[in-house]
Predict the 3D structure of the following.
Amino acid sequence: MEEKKDDLGIGLKIVSVIFPIVGAILYFVKKKDEPVAAKQACTMALIGFGIGIVLNIIVAIIGGAAAGAM
């Protein structure tokens, strides 16, 4: 099987989801020379950002419910 050389590696994809700022930086670094990898880094960063927002909302709801129960 032939692997695309413009593809962002799985490790960088995981790092971009966990730390969205890394994905944003990778996007700007790679956007001229490796546009496919840049788009993947940006997509992973946006996914990580969305996951972070959802988790913050869940924690706020649970925390509010716990504080109201006291």
Observations:
- The helical segments are 10-18, 20-30, 35-69.
- The chain has a mean pLDDT of 91.
- The longest helix spans residues 35-69.
- The chain has one domain: 10-69.
